[in-house]
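Residues determine shape. Take a concrete instance:
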Amino acid sequence: MGSKNPVKINAAKTIFQRYFPESEIQCEGLHAPSGVADQPLGEDDTLAGAENRVAFLKANHSADYYCAMEGGAAKFAYGAATFAFVVIANHTQSIVGRSCNLPLPNQIYDALEQGEELGHVMDRVFNTTNIKQKGGAIGLLTNNLATRESSYTQALTLAMAPFIHQELYK
């Protein structure tokens, strides 16, 4: 797992336990550089961050699966939003998944364009501390009906489909 953030580690461990209930899952959070800004803006940079983390893990560690998540934000034709790309790889394939979009208020996206990280902006606006290792912006903006972890878990669950049904994804 290309992060030491407990939210990301828990999401990865959850999906591997669900897909492999008979196996003992060891999910270790490791530092893996993203090679992009701390707050990626745009889909290309956000995806590159997740791909770079997985490439680093594959080059420096041995595991059955490698997993990384990169949260980003972008301004789309319909408005600003935050989202994440996930990458899961093994020794033969690498699969990209993407989370849902969370609409962002313009004032929050403007702060991101000024170089701030989403977690820091949310902490300031909502008077929280280190929200990115808890429910995240998603939790705050949905009154905790969704969380950062639930978003990652869904994206990772979907990204596992090609590993589970390899015969269909040849």
Q: What stands out?
A: The helical segments are 6-19, 43-60, 106-113, 118-126, 136-141, 148-159, 161-164. The longest strand covers residues 66-76. The two ends are 25 Å apart (CA to CA). Residues 6-102+147-168 form a domain with the Maf protein fold (CATH 3.90.950.10).
